[in-house]
Amino acid sequence: MRKLWLDDLRPVPDKTWDKVKSYKEFTRYILQHGVPEVISFDHDLGREHYMSYITNKKKHILEDFDTPNGYDCAKWLVDQEYTLKEFYSHSANPIGKINIMTLLNNWKNFKENNGRL
Fold it and tell me: 5: Cβ–Cβ under 8 A, 6 or more apart, which residues?
């Protein structure tokens, strides 16, 4: 079973996970290997994300960043109409985590209700 860990700082939980650190690495991995059975998402994937979150938590999620984040990775999967079997968010950013999980759960429910899963 292939498992993918999206995080720029945290180490993988164990050696059974493949790791990518950025949007670019994430999309390249999926295009080369296909969608793994499990994906765990971090939201903040760069210094600008961390600094914004630390200094202004309320507006953080609304900012327009140069560096794509984990939510952008999740949106890319949905835009490509990929089917995800199992997914999590291990992000310490509570709003980012909710956004990722809401998007992916809504996508999964949509596919299930339309007989496409």
Answer: 12, 13, 17, 18, 19, 20, 40
